[in-house]
Amino acid sequence: MTLVSLNVEAAVSSLSQSQNASLRVAAIDWTLVETLMSLGVVPVATAQIKDYQAWVVEPSLPEQVVDIGLRAQPNRELAASLNLDLILISPLYSAIEPTLSQIAPVQTLTTYNPEKDFWQNLVDTTRRVGELTNHSAEAEVVIEHHRSRIDQMKEKIAMDTPPLLVVQFIDDRHVRAYGKGSLYDMVIKQLGLQNAWKGETNMWGYTTVGIEELVTQGYLVIVDPVPMSAEGVFDDNRLWQALPAVRHDRVLSLPAVWSFGALPSAVRFADELYQALTEQHATEPGLRNL
Length: 290
Hints:
The chain has 12 helices and 10 strands. By secondary structure, the protein is α/β, with parallel strands linked by helices. The strands form 3 sheets. Strands 8-7-6-9-10 form a 5-stranded mixed β-sheet. A 3-stranded parallel β-sheet has the order 1-4-5.
């Protein structure tokens, strides 16, 4: 965790302590969970915590957060026992809204809207969560911090950095390639860089392709987690070894960052990418001196 992150956490914590007792909030969607956590609001409950820890990672969840089962089918009885004041969901889970509304008031927040500016949509979501939880002041601190952090990194990254092809492995032959409409693509553009993937994408900003299609003269960026079924590809697969990025040692490995995340995931991806490019700078041009 960076000093800047510690500073914003301290600022949010200071503001939160001045608030009245927090609402008892549950969030089904992990994007809303990380938004709550960034505002200093620890959710009473969420779903599939073990998977959250593998795919989202940060902000980490305290042990007292209750796991209420599957995101698409949470444990109704357990949720009802938690005396919740508010449940946050995204449209992806609208089918369970009638059930959840019998437990506590439900608010549906659209975190992904292809018709709106991606960054602004995440800002709007942060503000709305702040309003719903009486943490509007904290929301503004978080928004300003994340904007400032992106701008700081952008200033240090050279504009002639080679294009970036960002992928996540599905198995030993297929990956998700992230392009227009994805969080990764939005961050790359916010940093003033280029995304090497120009192909079509789905509503989430990615497409499934074979590894033979990962042809780029720029950097190939692999985001964890890598499934066990794909681990052997790095040593034994001839198609992989023949890729230009592999042959020229232009493969960057990043820890897991939630690809459908909110502002915290966006800035953490930017930070991890920036650090990886900084390390690459030792052997080839790409970043100005830090």
